Amino acid sequence: MKLKRLFTAVLSAALTLSLCAMPAMAEGTSNKSTFDPSITSGTLTIHKYEQTSEQAGTNSKGTPLDGVEFTVYKLADIAQENNKLVYKPVAALNGTLTDADFNNNATATGAIDSRALYATIQQELDAGKIDLNTLTHKSQTTGEDSTLGAGTVKFTNLDLGIYMVAETKAPSQILTKSANFIVSIPMTEKQTDGTYTWNYNVVAEPKNAPTYGGVTLIKTGRVAGQTGSGTGISEVLFRLDILNGAAWEPVDLSKVTIAKGTKVQTSSTTGIENKGQIKTADDGYINITTGLAPATYRFVELEAVDGYIADTTKATEFEVYNDAGAGLLKVKMGTDDNVSSINITNERPDLEKNIVKRNGTPSANHDADYGIGDNVPYTLTVKVPDTIAFLNVFKITDEVKAAELYYNKDFVLTYKDDAGNTQKLDAKYYEITYTNDNKETTDGARTFTIDFKPTGAGKGLTDAFKDKTITIKYTAKLLPSAKITNEGNINSAKLEYSNKTNKTVDGTETPDQKTNEIQDAGVVYTFQTGIHKVDENGTPLSGVTFDLYKMCDDDDQQYTQDGTPAGIILNGKNLPYITGAAKLGLDSGEKWVKVGTLTSNADGKDAIKGLVDGTYKLVETKTKEGYNLLKEPVDATLTVSYVKNWTETNSYVDGKLVKRTFNTSGSAFNDSDASPEIKVVNRKGFTLPVTGGFGTLLFSGIGVLLVLAGVGVLFSLKKKSNRA
């Protein structure tokens, strides 16, 4: 690197020295020692080039350079006396330079040796004896006149004389201006035959060695509230501006060197390229290796991707400046004067929907089972992005099937403050609306919407909530028409939000705003159990009554939204523990609640719908006349494990992220029946206790038959004994 810098410095010095001599007047022959006295003025045309160190010494002149100001200073007049050229310094030199200084530097033809004269003048300038501003002068800038072509100025109507030409202003990438040079109007020009003629239209081609800098932007994305910069995101559209005076202008990207992978945006509607618009590469980088002149720049984000929010209200400013000590350009941001890269992070919000299980804990699998009439608790968590104050849309819509669930409108919204304390969210920050708000309705969808950006003064989430998490707790009643199949009862929610902020960096309205969307879902199951009462011949028995009992454990204990135990709730009822379990044939070491009563109809059937998973027992309390009452409970256990086929993703498609989709065709209940029907057989005339279930009755019947057979054998043996 040091050798490269040394080579560049040497090359620049060599270039500067060459520029001193470049426009010098050539020596001529005595046959043209005088010129046409009728010609009193001439022109000076300057073609200015930017020539890199790689181009120096080649046939390439470089690139025409606009924005360079040249000033010509009148040093002396040219007169003809006795067929001889005489040079007379202008009065403003005040005798600092005399006739002799000019005439002694004349060649044999009378033309001025510009190198020798320049050395004399420069000596006086260095000593402070000459103030160029006191001389007659005029200035022009390359590029101001489009008719001349890029990098060109033309001074017209210059009186015959000797002029010093100085590069008085240059673009910021020109850290070292071209050296001043002397030009004579007219000057001699060598012909092909070796003779010289006078040229009144002088052309000069000075060159500058530019110095450019580069910059690397790293674009990353993260979920709101996360720490760190996140991961690189591609295809993010930025505009690179340069500060020109007091106004920002897009950088012409055709004049910078961009690393492979970074993409310059082309307008498909206008066909205009390189208006400062550039996209991040696949790794999230915009790498401009060179081409940035010393100046103040800014990156302005125009569009974001992958669900991230483009913050169009902000611009990331930086300065490319010359570090004289290091001999190179550096990047400055604020107080950091040696920035290696610029990091810009986008946030996206997040939405998580969950069902709270009966034991009060959130379900890791987004599922739970509840009874008909139960209030199913749900939790929504929303991570708020840092751009929340500038979003037009930020709202949650929750949807259920009207036949399955009904919202209880018991919403509790909280957040954690900066101290980590849970605070209730004031209702002024949101607005709740409902659709299909009739609990008797069984058709269509039922929704609620929480709008965090409602219209009206003083409403909506403010900047104070950026990067915070809002928790929404509510319940929905499971309705009698809820599904008891493996399809379950789906509940989904979506978060809609603006894809970019509502203001541009200059305060105007942001155009083409769209919305992104995040969806999440959960499912609640419910089951049923039933009886099929028949006699020994399979004939249905009506009017037989059973009480259904459930064994309870800690998972059956439900809780309120604030975590308070609410008891055993099933089918919408708070059920007390029973006493005297042993008398009913139930395990006295367990806790039992009475769920309900079943009475067989004409088909011998009845069922209780809307049960949760668990251990149940049927206790027969009334049987048909002539039949024996079962003395032992009948097992009615529900052991239903649900296998869900969630399709999960973390990728956006067309601005939408569907985090979880429930595939009902791939979901099932493992080795169990969500709606079992228990066949119970009653028999006539038996005094022996019959303990429910066909298998039990069968074994009891076999036992009776064996007893009867034994009695028959004894009777036969007795008859034989009597005969003997």
Topology (elements, then pairings):
Elements: H1 2-21, E1 41-47, E2 49-50, E3 63-64, E4 69-81, E5 84-89, H2 99-103, H3 114-126, E6 137-141, E7 152-159, E8 161-169, E9 181-185, E10 187-190, E11 196-199, E12 201-204, E13 207-208, E14 213-223, E15 231-232, E16 237-244, E17 247-250, E18 257-258, E19 263-266, E20 273-279, E21 285-292, E22 295-303, E23 315-323, E24 328-332, E25 342-348, E26 350-355, E27 367-369, E28 375-383, E29 394-401, E30 405-407, E31 412-416, E32 422-424, E33 431-435, E34 445-451, E35 469-478, E36 489-498, E37 515-525, E38 527-535, E39 545-552, E40 557-559, E41 565-570, E42 573-575, E43 591-599, E44 605-611, E45 616-622, E46 630-632, E47 634-635, E48 641-643, E49 646-648, E50 656-658, E51 660-662, E52 668-670, E53 677-682, E54 690-691, H4 694-723
Parallel strand pairs: 1-12, 2-13, 14-25, 27-37, 37-50, 38-53, 46-54
Antiparallel strand pairs: 1-7, 2-3, 4-5, 4-6, 4-8, 8-9, 10-11, 14-15, 14-21, 16-17, 16-20, 16-22, 18-21, 19-20, 22-23, 23-24, 26-28, 28-35, 29-34, 29-36, 30-35, 31-32, 31-35, 33-34, 36-37, 38-44, 39-43, 39-45, 40-41, 41-42, 45-47, 48-52, 49-51
Textual characterization of the structure:
The protein folds into four domains: 2-208, Immunoglobulin-like; 213-348, Immunoglobulins (Immunoglobulin-like), CATH 2.60.40; 350-503 and 516-525, Immunoglobulin-like (Sandwich), CATH 2.60.40.740; 528-638 and 674-693, Immunoglobulin-like (Sandwich), CATH 2.60.40.10. It is rod-shaped, with a radius of gyration of 48 Å. Strands 16, 17, 19, 20, 22, 23 and 24 form a seven-stranded antiparallel sheet that branches. Strands 27, 29, 33, 34, 36, 37 and 50 form a seven-stranded mixed sheet that branches. Strands 26, 28, 30, 31, 32 and 35 form a six-stranded antiparallel sheet that branches. By secondary structure, the protein is mostly beta strands. Helix content is 9%, strand content 42%.
